[in-house]
Structures are given as structure tokens and as C-alpha cells.
Amino acid sequence: MDKFWNDNLEVKEELVEVVKIMKKRVKSSNKLISDILLDMVNNSGKMLRPAFVIISAKFGNYDRKKILPLAAAIEMLHMATLVHDDIIDNALIRRSKPTIQAEYGKDYAVFIGDFLFSQSFLLLSDNINVANLKKVSKVVSRICKGEIDQFESRYDINITINDYLKRIAAKTAALFALSFYVGAYESNCGEELAKILGSIGYNIGIAFQIIDDILDYTGEESVVGKPLCNDIRQGVFTLPLIYSLERNRDEKIISLIKKRNYCEDDIKRIVAFVQQNGGITQSKMLAEKYTKKAFDKIAMLKDSPPKQILIDVTTKLLYRNY
Amino acid sequence: MDKFWNDNLEVKEELVEVVKIMKKRVKSSNKLISDILLDMVNNSGKMLRPAFVIISAKFGNYDRKKILPLAAAIEMLHMATLVHDDIIDNALIRRSKPTIQAEYGKDYAVFIGDFLFSQSFLLLSDNINVANLKKVSKVVSRICKGEIDQFESRYDINITINDYLKRIAAKTAALFALSFYVGAYESNCGEELAKILGSIGYNIGIAFQIIDDILDYTGEESVVGKPLCNDIRQGVFTLPLIYSLERNRDEKIISLIKKRNYCEDDIKRIVAFVQQNGGITQSKMLAEKYTKKAFDKIAMLKDSPPKQILIDVTTKLLYRNY
């Protein structure tokens, strides 16, 4: 289990169980499918989404037998989108290991992702009510649309902060929000509390993705676990660059950006441009704004043990370097 | 609507409604997604699976409001697998038009397929009970596994008839069976009749896929709507070749087959080998065996208008040239 959870043994123990459930669910009579997916489950990162399902469920009548499979299903859905994302991004490395598309080819990656989707829906069908299953399907549609929007707007120097926020809402915050919402709802927290928790998840998700995008500029490769400046290389312009271009329509940089297929020196020039024009600082301020929104909503919740866990996790998550 | 249904106006009219439902469901605020999918829906082939849902449902208390969306969802699921199949197969043409992966690239095709999956599950959630939703998820897993099995066994000259039958059961017959089963079940036919209809669907599916694989050798390109001998080119060995290799381990042919990357002349030699060794005739006999199994089971059903439709459709389908 990722060291992120070392300070939070209550959540960590539950996530260990979630991993066990996932291991059962990715087994197939095709040995290669099993091997690839067991590898992926064994290297499953922070497992934020299942953790959110669990933490949120603890605000209600926590029933492990129901909540842990639900958490596993949500993580498998996320894994499916990662496998397919890596095809689009031509990503070679994720979580410090070769991606499925890099190691086995795009062909396998397509159906490995589909297999995960279907196994996730199979597990969901048993552990969620129909209205929530529909919400999950809608979020998956939204993620797909977000990915296609992002793909279409590559190399677009006119992308706005609003476009960016819409895109990360779809590709990240929607599933964060859903994880909180279904955890609470399926623990009988009631619609009102489930919605508040969902909205906390949404704000955490936006802040988290902005920080992730900042780390693509400022992080250390060995700590982040994937190559830096990957977004720029793919023509995906994120908040730091969008802010900088908004402040300074430097002609040289714009013609460099329009050129595409950047060499290492181009990347360095773009990063320098972003740093000189306050793109990182401005992005951090926006991340803090969403972090504050999340904490303001958390503050509205009644004091309770899960509230304290939520405060701890959110604090750690949004002040991270990996 | 495909001319296949011109003799069967009752089914045709329902399928026209199914197309309308699909058109609503593939709309997205991303114009490209909508355009691509509307094109695909407008060129939707024979729509066998939704037709099976409808015909099977007519054996029970037929409720259009429930059955037509269900039929649309099953077809969208099938469309999703086609979009992803074409990525694996590098297919350029399907239904006489460029495939999504050929026209827009593999990147788009991945998420367009995922979008269809999620929209299908969204529609299913409203029109099916949980037990059947699980069955659908299982069939999708099975299709994925079948595709991966097929991909792994490319260029394998030792593939057996049993391997082949398992593969086509997963990739084709399972969804045929499910279409019949859920149509009947959701029309309150009762478990027993639903299972008989499901098993009719299974046998039709096996026969259908064998015929499809024969047509890849013997059809006319303009009639079939996709390039011929596509399976061999991809290293996918189907029943005609498997039978022929079982009968004659011709060393020259085996070394030719092992060479991979066949030129047109190689393809002609393999096709000639298959014809000379009775691969087509033997395959036709096996298709007829499954066709007979399907008709034997249909004969067990009480005489009724949907039984007559089923006989007509099965007869036409299994004696087709496109």
C-alpha cells in the first residue's frame, strides 16, 4: 500500500481489503489478462477514489461488506480510464513502471481497459442502487467527453481558464465527487449530506488536478513517478501555461508553441516562460482557492471521527509533492 | 434501414424506432462525438441484436416502452465493441465506409467506444433488472477475453476447432444469446422460455459467425462491405483454414503461413489450399449443424406469430450472401 496512508491506519487497513477484492475480480482464464492486471493492482498508487468512498461512508452506517466492493469497483473504473488514457497520451511510464500500452501494445490496452470496465460494472451492479449506477455511467460518459475535448484542443493557444476548468471537472473532479457521494449515499447518510460530501469531493478534485498539472512543471521525476512536462510534449496546455499566455502574448513563445514536436530546449524555454510570467504562482493560488472551498464545506460538517480523517487526508493530499 | 428487413415490416418498424432512440443517446455537447456516432447509427447494418431482443420479447407481454430502449442499449454495446475491434484489426472499412479508427485515428476510437459503453449502461440501468445487468457485464467481459484470446493466437498453426468454437462463442454467440434471453425475460416470458430462446440465440450466433468467416474467403467484396481475406491478413485463422490444416499438414503452406506479412499472391495460395482441402465445405457443414440445432429448438416452441418471424429471420440470416 502506498506510503500516503501510513499516518492513517484505519483507512489503510480497509484499502488493503479493497486490493484483495480487486485481485479476485481481475482474474481471468486468460493468463495474460490476469498477470497484467494483478501487476497493475499491486502497483495501484494512492487509491484516492476508493479511500474517498470509505471515508465518506463512515459518515453513515458503515457496512464493510457493501462499501469495500463498491470502493473496489470505483477504483477499477478509474484504472480502466488510465489504461485507455495512456493509449491516447502514448505514455510510456506510469507509477514508475511501463504502461500496458508501452509494454504490450495499444491493441491489448484497448481490451484490457474494456475488461476492467465490464468487471467494474459487474461489481457495481451488486453493490449500488440503480439511480447511483446511472450516476456512475454518466460520470464515465463525462470522462470520455473530457478526454476527447482535451484531445481536440491540443496545441490550441487560445484555450481559456474556463475551458481548462471544464475539462478537469470532467476528467478528474466528477469521479472524486461521485466517490464521496455514493459512499455516503450507500451508507444511508441521506441525500443532503451525500450532496455536501459530493461537493467537497468536487472541490478536492479540482484542486488536486491543478496541483498535478503544476507538478508536471515543477516536480521531480523520481518522486512524481512519470516523466515531467509530459502535458506540453503532448500539446496539452494546462493552467500554468494558460495563465502565462493570458498575461503575455510573447510572439516568440507563441510561434515556438505553434511549431509542435518540441525538442528538450523548446520545453525548457516554455517552462522558463511559464515561471517568468507567474504561471506557477497563479495556478497555486487557484488550487488554494478550491482547497479553501473544500475546507469551508468540511467545516460545516458535525464533528466526528470521519470528519477528522477527511481533514487529515485533504490537508496531506493538497500539500503534497508526489 | 438495411434491406434485410424489407420482408419483415413488423420488425423493421420497431428497428426504425430503435435507431431514433440511439440517435438521442449518442448526442453530446462535443460536436465531433455526435457527428461520428450519428454517422455510425445511420449506417447501422442489419441490427440483428436489437431485432433479436424485439422478436424474443414478442413471445411475452411486449411492452415497447421498455423493450425498444433495451434493444437500443444492446446495439450500442455491440457498436462499442466494433469501434474497439477495428482498432485491433487496423480495419479501414466497415459497412462500406471508413472505420472511426481509420478516419479519426485510434485515439478517438478508444474514447468513442468508451462513450458508447457508458451510454449503453446508462440506458440499460433504466430498462433492465439487476440480475440481467450483471449478465450483460459478464458478456462484455467475455467478449473482451475472446478478443484478447484471438489476438494472442494469431499466426498459431496449431489452433483447434475447439479453440475456434470457444472464441466465436465469446465474441459473437454470447451476445446473440443474451439478446434473446433479456428480450424474453424482460417481457415476463419466465426463466424457462427465456433460457430456450437464449440457447436458440447461441446456436444462431455460432452458425452466423461460421458463415461470416466463410464469406471472408468466398464472398464478394462489394456485397460483404469489407475487404476479403481480412482475417488471414491479420493472422486470424478461422474455421476453413483450421479444417484444411487439420486434414493436410502441407509443409510448403505451413512455412508460407509461418512467414507472416502475406502478399496478395500468398493470400491466393492460402485460399486455394483451403478450397482444395475442403475447408469451405466442411465449415458449411458445421454451420448447418448449428443451424439445425437452432431450428430444432425453435420447433419446440408453441406456434405463434413471433415463432413464424423467428423462423423467417433465421432462415434468411443463415442462407445469406452478405
TrEMBL record, chains A, B:
Keywords: Magnesium, Metal-binding, Transferase
Gene3D superfamilies: Farnesyl Diphosphate Synthase
InterPro entries, sorted: Isoprenoid_synthase_dom_sf, Polyprenyl_synt, Polyprenyl_synt_CS
GO terms, molecular function: metal ion binding; prenyltransferase activity
GO biological process: isoprenoid biosynthetic process
Cofactor: Mg(2+)
Secretion signal, residue range per the UniProt entry: none
Family, as annotated: Belongs to the FPP/GGPP synthase family.
Name of the protein in question: Geranylgeranyl pyrophosphate synthase
Species assigned in the record: Caldanaerobacter subterraneus subsp. pacificus DSM 12653
